[in-house]
Amino acid sequence: MPSDAMAVLQPASPSIIARNWRPDCGPATNMPPIQTGKFLERIPFARFGVGDDPVLVINGGQGFMMKPDAERMEKDARRLMRLLPADRSVILLGYDPDAERVTVERLAEDVARIIEEHFDGKADVVGISYGGVVASRLAARSPGKVGKLVLLASAPWFSPEGERRLRRQIELVADGNMGALLREFTSMFRSPWLNLLVGLRVRLSGSRLAGRLGRPEVIARYLKAMLEPGLRQNGLFPSDVPALLVGGNRDQFFAQSMVEASTALPHLKMSILEGETHMMPVERAGAVKTIIGEFLRPG
């Protein structure tokens, strides 16, 4: 494993992951070129693949935890290649790094506007972790703009344990303790040796990794948005939106809310992987790609 083998992705989708680790999936070859840019002059995106019907992916919390430069967006896009069907182009959507005010409603409104202006008014949407809460609100407020909806390692709201973790992260950011914030994500994998590897990475390179984080006050705004009252009611989307939730039953942020969502949204298809944590998309990438590919297949 190379010395720079780990890359912090974040909280609420805390992927502090092994850059070259591809469990349950072979090595990536013939990677397509990646285009980066900004929507609405402030929201970063990365696009790859071919086709005129792109899948819109709303990034997890790494999208606001890390500085969203072109290199960061390209790295996140390459990870997505191991999770999404190869016969569709993909646009990965990040977050405004200078947002003065953040609410779930505003985030969903931005996505709706992007779909209207750049996707001919409708798109298949995948929300990863934090992005799944935004995607659920989008489907609730603008169901006509969502073709199919996938919630990956996510749910329409955070579980009580997830909210507790968010509050802890907010406290650490407020205290300026970014090293401790990074250490919050050193026990997220199912695999003990991957947790050990992440912990070593943070101990050896914590200062350098902390330097890649975004502005603390902006990070705090995004985290606090997920503690808004009314998220449960506002994330209930109608039954005419075909929707799939893919998660692990040991997810540290969403396990309980996945169960709650299956009751509140009986039309929501569920694919729960036994024994998997929030890092299920990393450790079970091949299975995730198959499940999502079958759901997004036309017909």
Give an overview in words:
With 299 residues, this protein is of the alpha/beta class. The chain has a single domain, classed as Rossmann fold (3-Layer(aba) Sandwich). The chain has 12 helices and 10 strands. The termini are far apart.
How would you summarize what this structure contains?
This protein has 299 residues and is of the alpha/beta class. It is built from twelve helices and ten strands.
Main features:
eight-stranded mixed β-sheet, two-stranded antiparallel sheet, alpha/beta, disordered N terminus, Rossmann fold, 10 strands, 299 residues
Number of domains: 1
The CATH architecture category equals: 3-Layer(aba) Sandwich
> Given the C-alpha coordinates, what overall shape results?
globular
Provide the succession of SSEs. Answer: EEEEEHHEHEHEHHHHHEHEHH
What does the secondary structure layout of this molecule look like, with pairings?
Layout: E1 6-8, E2 16-18, E3 35-39, E4 43-48, E5 55-58, H1 62-65, H2 70-80, E6 90-93, H3 104-118, E7 123-128, H4 130-141, E8 146-152, H5 160-174, H6 178-183, H7 192-210, H8 216-225, H9 231-234, E9 243-248, H10 255-264, E10 269-273, H11 280-283, H12 285-296
Parallel strand pairs: 5-6, 5-7, 7-8, 8-9, 9-10
Antiparallel strand pairs: 1-2, 3-4, 4-6
Helix pairs in contact: 3-4, 5-8
